[in-house]
Amino acid sequence: MNDRLIQYISPTSNHEDTHRRQFILHVLLCATIILLSIASFLILIQSIQLGSTFRGLPLWINLVLLTFFIGIFLLSKKGFPHISSQLFIWTYFLFSIALAIHWGVELIASLMFFALIIVMSGILVNSLFAFFITMAISFTLFVLHHLQTTGVTHPKLYWKLEQWGRGEIITVGILFFIIATVSWLSNREIEKSLKRARNSETALKEERDMLEIRVDERTRELQKTQMEKIAQLSRFAEFGRLSSGLFHDLVNPLTAVSLNIEKMKSHTTGQGEMTEIEEDLIRAKKATAHMQALIQAVRKQMSQQTVQELFSINEEIKEAIQVLHYRARKNNVSIEFQSQHDIQTFGDSIKFSQVASNLLSNAIDAYVESQTPSPGRKVRITLKQKNSDVILEVNDRAHGIPADIIDTIFEPFFTTKQFHNGIGLGLSITKNIIEKDFGGTITVQSNEQTGTNFTVTFHKRDTL
């Protein structure tokens, strides 16, 4: 039964404000219809009991009002809540005027009805309409009072000579209760709207936060993918830079192999010559091994494989020196490698080789535009172990890094070199490898007079 009643008085509008006002209108209309029905029944009983002495509101007026309010309710259910609200308020307004004309403007019931009309106007329509209806009520009361005092109207004022009975007290109490109920309904619906708004705001904020998280995650994924692609391009670019020196270093061992083989062919097979042939073979074997080492070092630089293994840090540095030997010699740079002993750690040897090559390559390139004389062009690589930490230092004595840009040298694509000498990814990739693959740090100290020193520190690991 309650569900059917709620469904019957439920609003039909989807607009939030109209929905709230329509619901309050339906509640007030239903309450009015019920009260008029009860009043009509009581008037009918009193008129039968009192007969010609009955001085209350005529029954036909109550029945007309009841029918009219039912029509307003049906009009609102058909989708015209604004018109229905206006009709509802103006009907109460005319009814209150009729009471004031019939019983006098001083009638408490009519004055309370006017107050109820002002409250309902602000709730069912808007505040502007409430001000308008207030002015209309004030003007109406002024006119009715003037007509009453000048004798134009003759209201029934006998009630002034009688004391209030229970009926009058109950009537006033009911009107107070109606005013309080209208205010409560309005506040209740506003609070529900505010609660929905707050819930929507919270849900929107959570959705926005989740969207920001997803965007950040996607951005990091894209940046990681881009960095991997760019790093790959950087390795190919680096290979192009190394190729001239690499081929130069490969030609000499191959030439030595060819000469030794030709020499072997020209010798006789006597016992005396065999010793010399064996020496030539040994030299050819060493030259071939040197060539294989160079090729292996370059292949390691170009590889993208990830292999976790126990490797020698010393050997990786030596291979990097070997690969960059020609470039160093071309720029009159000597490379000095110092290490206390062979240090081994567990990790990705290929990535560490890339770190060593990038730092050594940067140190060599620092002399390209430097005015440092040839005897002073030296790169010193120092490797040592302190407790469980491995410390790698790469030092040059070139022109150094200006103080205003030293904080930005690890940013991607930042470079002080000419375009053909670099694209600004070497130090960025190096920092990324040291921090993420080896859990270490890289710092730089530079002075325009004494040169630059890069220090790599990470924890030595024996196993994964």
Describe the structure in your own words.
Keywords: ATP-binding, Coiled coil, Kinase, Membrane, Nucleotide-binding, Phosphoprotein, Transferase, Transmembrane, Transmembrane helix, Two-component regulatory system. Helix content is 65%, strand content 11%. By secondary structure, the protein is α+β, with helices and mostly antiparallel strands. It has a domain of 161 residues. The strands form two sheets. Strands 2-4-5-7-6 form a five-stranded mixed β-sheet. Strands 1-3 form a two-stranded antiparallel ribbon. Helix 4 packs antiparallel against helix 5, helix 4 runs parallel beside helix 6 and helix 5 packs parallel to helix 7.
Oligomer: single chain
Tally of alpha and pi helices? 12
Structural classification: alpha+beta
Let me know the number of strands: 7
* Rg (CA only): 50 Å
* Mean pLDDT over all positions: 79
The separation of the N and C termini measures 72 Å
| Overall geometric form | rod-shaped
Q: Which strand-content bin applies to the residues?
A: 5-15%
Query: Uncertain spans, ≥5 residues at pLDDT below 50?
Result: none
Helix and strand sequence? HHHHHHHHEHHEEHEEHEE
| Helix content percent band | 55-70%
Q: Could you describe the largest sheet, including whether it forms a barrel?
A: 5 strands, mixed
